[in-house]
């Protein structure tokens, strides 16, 4: 059924107005606020009314891709000459925050496209590759995905076994990637694979190349409105001009992850704000023992702690955005924010679920969906513990991964 059908429309109006206890808005420019408000309006119109239905049916609304392109959600940080938004990292963060306020799976679609597909093509691609792919990715004419994780190499991507051989006039690609966001619908995949010398390179693999398939992963209880799948390469002939020439080694995909993890740090605040907003409204409306439950100290404690954590996360993330704009943010700076903010959002989702009582487990409220989504967000783009180890490495100078 067409997604605009009223039959699937949520009856609840999206009343979200933002959370800004410490007047963090004073740190934003008028342009930042304008961008945020246009994406917030977009989410209220194009995502909120349908998202519960999509998630319940595990349906990826493919038509959202073009709409994201039209609203400027793909590659806002990529220069305008390649179709991107030419915006700064705070604008990028605000866009991720607003989209994830709607749903983490929707934010996944946008952040994979902008940070994990457009960014590597922009940063490491040839001029021909940039001209060929970036404008179409920015407009949503094309959807991309990013293949790093393999069945046997998740936290440890340097062990990957996907490989390519130089056959003279083309490369021959073999192997498989797993847990790839957007893969079942993607037109292109930025794939990380080892050459015969064991050096990691990025290759652009296009749908339709012989031997390339993208089976969908079914049965997820998380990110149900996002399409996730595998990338399977069975003797795929990849033209030589599809290799990203600008950088090789694990550092190349790690630079992409820096950008995407930064976006997730903002996105998680969006999910947390939505849970807090819903919990606050419910606490004031729900009567037990002849009073709104919001009049009980235990409920007030939960709400006060949520607001405190959201405010701390907003300040961390804004300052990180400034450091990103100045080129001063390191991987460890980004790890601190991604790790803190996602754990914070997950905790808020769990507390908000309790405030909603039994209603909290239903699709009438966004809580359980956010909570289940955040169980992926806390694992992808580096698990909670891997980010702790990145910080531990930065503090002590001693890597504790192996
Ligand atoms: P390590 O020895 O630390 O580094 C290997 C080489 O890479 C270089 N490097 C970086 N270069 C630039 N920027 C960075 N951020 C870099 N990080 C590392 C490093 O200098 C070194 O270079 P060289 O020349 O000396 O060789 O690597 P390691 O193998 O010990 O691994 C470190 C570890 C565990 C931290 C890292 O591999 C890691 O972060 N693992 C987590 C994997 C991960 O995050 N996967 C994400 C997959 S994509 C995804 O989840 C998308 S979900 C999207 C969505 O839907 O939103
Ligand atoms: P593992 O690496 O097997 O980790 C299992 C557990 O062991 C974790 O708790 C981890 O913290 C712990 N652990 C591992 N190593 C250590 C260590 N050295 N010390 C202490 N503890 C350790 N990948 C992509 O490439 N592209 C995508 O688009 C993408 N999208 C995703 C979408 C979803 C919905 C999900 C769930 C995942 C996605 N991923 C994607 C993969 C994601 O990045 C990996 O799941 C993640 O990096 C963890 O890898 P793993 O699942 O293999 O867990």
Automatic annotation (TrEMBL):
Reactions the enzyme catalyzes: glutaryl-CoA + oxidized [electron-transfer flavoprotein] + 2 H(+) = (2E)-butenoyl-CoA + reduced [electron-transfer flavoprotein] + CO2
Acyl-CoA dehydrogenase/oxidase N-terminal domain location: 29-141
Q: Acyl-CoA oxidase/dehydrogenase middle domain location, by residue?
A: 145-236
Note whether Oxidoreductase occurs among the keywords.
yes
Q: Please give the InterPro entries that the UniProt record associates with this protein.
A: Acyl-CoA_DH_CS, Acyl-CoA_Oxase/DH_mid-dom, Acyl-CoA_Oxase/DH_mid-dom_sf, AcylCo_DH-like_C, AcylCo_DH/oxidase_C, AcylCoA_DH/ox_N, AcylCoA_DH/ox_N_sf, AcylCoA_DH/oxidase_NM_dom_sf
User: What is this enzyme's EC?
Assistant: 1.3.8.6
Which segments constitute the Acyl-CoA dehydrogenase/oxidase C-terminal domain? 248-393
Q: Which cofactor does it need?
A: FAD
PROSITE patterns for this protein? ACYL_COA_DH_2
The Swiss-Prot or TrEMBL record describes its family as follows: Belongs to the acyl-CoA dehydrogenase family.
Q: What is this protein called?
A: glutaryl-CoA dehydrogenase (ETF)
What species was this sequence derived from? Fontibacter flavus
